[in-house]
Specification:
Length: 286
C-alpha cells in the first residue's frame, strides 16, 4: 500500500497490529451531561456533540443513562428503541449485574458511534444501587474494561435530571461534566443546584466541570446576554464560547432520529454543535 497519508485509513482498514497500536495510544475521555433541570438540552447536546466528534474522526461511545430514552431515540426510531429497552442488553441490566459494559454496546447507523441503550427500568436504579457495596462506583467499574481497551476516544454519558445516587455514579465514572443551561431565569436556578451538588461531592469524585453550555438561545430576548454576564462572575467556571440557538431543525432531526447535522448540515445549530466539538477537542489537547 506504500506510504499512507493522514486520510488513508478512510480507504484501507488497519491491520490487527495497527489497530492494537492505535488503541494503546488512544486516551479515553469520559464526559457526562448533567443538570437537575429538565429540558436544558442534555440529551440533545450529548447526541449532537457525539456525532460531530465522530465526524472529526473520533471514536465515540454514548451511554444512555436516562429512563426517558432520548439519547437512544436520537439514533433509532421509536420501535427499535422500545425493542432495545425490553431486551436484556440495556444499561440497567449491566448495572444491576455489575457487568462489563462492553457486552451491552450496540452499533448505531453512524460510523464511529456506538451506544449502550437505556430502558424505562432505569427509574428504579437508585433503589438497586442502594443495597450494593461501594454503590457510588458501580458504573465506573462497569466502564473500566472499555476505558482500558482504548477503543474509544470519548465516552459520553447522558444523565437524568435528578441528583440521586445514580447521578453520583455517573459523575464518579466521568473525567469531566458539561452543564447545559437553558437561557432562562429557571435555568439559573437549576445551575445553582448543580454547583452546590458538585461541591458536596469533592471527596467522592474527581470529575471537573469542563464548562457550562448555554442552550435554547433566543437573541430577541435578553436572557442570553444576562446569562453570560452572570456566569462571568464565576471566575472558576468555564463558559463555552459556543452556544446553541433555538432551532426548529433540532426538533425535526429528533423526529427523524438523526443528529441535526445529518438531517440538515447547513442549519445554524449544526454549525454550533460543530464549533462545540472543536472546543471539546481543543480542551483535550491542552
Amino acid at each position: 500500500m506504500g506510504n499512507r497519508n493522514a486520510y488513508d485509513h478512510l480507504f484501507y482498514p488497519l491491520s490487527g497490529e495497527e489497530e492494537m497500536a492505535s488503541r494503546k495510544k488512544r486516551k479515553t475521555t469520559t464526559i457526562c451531561f448533567t443538570n437537575n433541570k429538565g429540558g436544558s438540552g442534555k440529551s440533545t447536546t450529548c447526541a449532537n456533540l457525539g456525532y460531530e466528534l465522530s465526524v472529526a474522526g473520533k471514536k465515540v461511545l454514548l451511554v444512555d443513562g436516562d429512563m426517558q430514552l432520548n439519547l437512544s431515540l436520537s439514533f433509532f426510531d421509536e420501535d427499535a428503541v422500545l425493542a432495545l429497552a425490553e431486551s436484556e442488553k440495556t444499561l440497567y441490566e449491566a448495572i444491576r449485574g455489575k457487568k462489563d459494559l462492553a457486552e451491552y454496546v450496540i452499533e448505531t447507523p453512524h460510523e464511529g458511534i456506538d451506544l449502550v441503550p437505556s430502558t424505562t427500568l432505569m427509574s428504579q436504579v437508585d433503589y438497586d444501587l442502594f443495597t450494593m457495596m461501594q454503590r457510588e462506583f458501580v458504573l465506573k467499574k462497569c466502564l473500566s474494561g472499555i476505558k482500558e481497551s482504548g477503543k474509544y476516544d470519548y465516552i459520553l454519558i447522558d444523565a437524568p435530571p435528578t441528583l440521586g445516587i445514580w447521578v453520583i455514579n455517573i459523575l464518579c465514572a466521568s473525567d469531566y461534566a458539561i452543564l447545559p443551561m437553558e437561557a432562562s431565569p429557571w435555568g439559573f436556578f437549576g445551575l445553582a443546584n448543580m454547583f452546590d451538588f458538585l461541591n458536596g461531592l469533592k471527596d467522592v469524585t474527581d470529575a471537573k466541570i469542563m464548562g457550562v453550555l448555554i442552550t435554547k438561545v433566543d437573541e430577541r430576548k435578553n436572557y442570553y446576554k444576562q446569562a453570560r454576564d452572570i456566569l462571568g462572575n464565576y471566575k472558576a467556571i468555564h463558559v463555552f464560547e459556543s452556544f446553541i440557538h433555538v432551532d426548529s431543525a433540532i426538533e425535526w432531526a429528533q423526529d427523524a432520529s438523526e443528529p441535526v447535522a445529518k438531517y440538515k448540515k447547513s442549519t445554524r445549530s449544526a454549525v454550533e454543535f460543530k464549533k462545540l466539538a472543536e472546543e471539546v477537542i481543543k480542551h483535550g489537547s491542552r
